[in-house]
TrEMBL record:
Keywords: Metal-binding, Zinc, Zinc-finger. Gene3D superfamilies: 6.10.140.2220. One of its GO terms (cellular component) is cytoplasm. This is MYND-type domain-containing protein. The keyword Zinc-finger applies. Residues 145-182 form the MYND-type domain. One of its GO terms (molecular function) is zinc ion binding.
Amino acid sequence: MAAKAGKETKTNREVVLGFLEEAESWQLLSSQFPSKVGGRPAWLSQVDLPTVSELQCEKCKLPTVFLLQVYAPVTEHDRCFHRTLFVFCCKTPACYSRNDNKCFKVFRCQLPRKNDFYPFDPPSDEKPDQLMDDHQVLSSGLKLCRLCGCLGQKACSRCHSVTYCSKEHQTIDWKHRHKKECSNEASQSSEELNSFLFPEWELVTEPEELPAKDEKLHESHSLDQESMTCLNNGLENSELESMALHETQDTKVFQKFKKRIANEPQQVLRYCKEGSPLWVSAEHVPRDEEVPECPCGAKRLFEFQIMPQLLNHLKVDRTDASIDWGTVAIYTCADSCDQGTKYSAEFIWKQDFSGEQAV
């Protein structure tokens, strides 16, 4: 994602597609600046991690879980020579109310090329002789939750050898494996990916290539976005006319979504910085004023979206309920403002399928 995502400009607005591939574990460590899905976060800054309260689901108040990260530097600014966006989500199906984004969190972190954590030169494509295991302790000395890989400041009161972000995660890990480890019945296995985490994949990218017949569709994308915004702002028609118009528009939007992804049905992410999302419905499209400005005062603009196809790889299906979304759009500070080594919260908009739609 790094090389390709960083080259996006306002003029071409090229769409870059994300796909999942298997990778060796060392390729997904922080020192390799990965884009990835699942497992534990590969933190960019080694200090100032999001706090437990910042990572809480706003509905159930339980800790959210790492979903994915996208390495997307903005090369024209040294302050974001390294730049990664981190997305977290709740694992409680009941929190996924229709078109409600309170079960998601997104953070932006960026560093200049010369920083306190990484060499000036890019990492080698070969496996290093020595690797820093950043699953439980970062290079800065910060301890991580043994279960989820987020900031962990609660140590096991018995052995003090493992730490957790919350009582909830400590309880889960105790039942899963630490009860035996703590009583010396089994050796600790920090490398093991527990079933609580989403399956881990590398996120690889390639530019979207549209058949010639679809070029016109691509060019009209911004116009369709404007039309949907107008529709959501409300039209001065009778109630019946509005319903009929909406139904027609919604069908048109969904058919366009299906047609656009048919060329690459395995895509799990679409990156188009300062472009427009590919919506799944004419319903619940954000108006400009519904996307809050960054605290620095700059607008937040669309950067990438998470596709529903990703759900097929997360092993979240249950007979009673499951986490779900139509698409999840991420909006970030247009200036990629300098926040030092901190993780800055950005904005997420979740849109669900309407009616009986299905991909």
